[in-house]
Design a protein that fits this description.
Layout: H1 2-17, E1 42-47, E2 54-56, E3 63-67, E4 74-79, E5 84-86, E6 95-100, E7 106-112, E8 116-120, E9 123-133, E10 137-140, E11 146-157, E12 173-177
Antiparallel strand pairs: 1-6, 2-5, 3-4, 3-11, 6-11, 7-10, 7-12, 8-9, 9-11
């Protein structure tokens, strides 16, 4: 019994003097949460693209005319000699779109649908090289959340292009997004 008592005393002493110190450290903090809902981004066409009236010399080699988006002015691109003529004040007009959205917010302009074909009966021409003002890519809405986007391009006339009114329903597409 003496051995049991000594063993018990030893166990109590070891247990009493060998307490494990367990330090516990805790840190906490809070994060706030934010979500911003932007005003809807809208795009409304206000004018269609119109290259105006163009004349080509019979048996001419053809060429191109360019509709500038910022000014709506049509100018000669490529032509052999003086075979392509632009009739002044004949209704040339860049396509135009009004954009609305969040004040002073960045948006992107994307131009699609080119090259596109305009037709008059069985005759065709091609509109290519779309150019917008402001330029396609990243832009910023003004302080009122507004922007006007105009669209031009290059019209290619074939040699001896047939006369007629050439149209295309709606393939020239301007897309904007935040």
């Amino acid at each position: 019994m003496k051995k049991s008592l000594i063993l018990f005393a030893a166990i109590v002493m070891v247990a009493g003097f060998s307490t494990t110190a367990m330090a516990q450290m805790t840190a906490t903090d809070n994060a706030s949460t934010t979500a911003e809902i932007l005003a809807p981004l809208t795009l409304t066409k206000t004018a269609d693209m119109n290259f105006g009236k163009i004349s080509i010399v019979p048996a001419g080699a053809g060429g191109t005319v360019i509709l500038a988006p910022a000014t709506g002015v049509v100018s000669l691109g490529t032509a052999v000699g003086t075979e392509v003529f632009i009739v002044p004040a004949s209704g040339a007009l860049a396509a135009s779109f009004d954009a609305t959205g969040e004040l002073s917010t960045d948006y992107t302009i994307v131009l699609t649908g080119f090259p596109l074909t305009v037709t008059s009966g069985l005759n065709t021409m091609v509109v290519s090289a779309p150019v917008s003002s402001p330029a396609a890519g990243l832009q910023t809405l003004d302080g009122a959340g507004l922007a006007t986007i105009t669209l031009g391009g290059t019209l290619t006339l074939a040699a001896s292009q047939a006369s007629g009114v050439y149209t295309n329903a709606a393939d020239a597409t301007v897309t904007i997004n935040y």
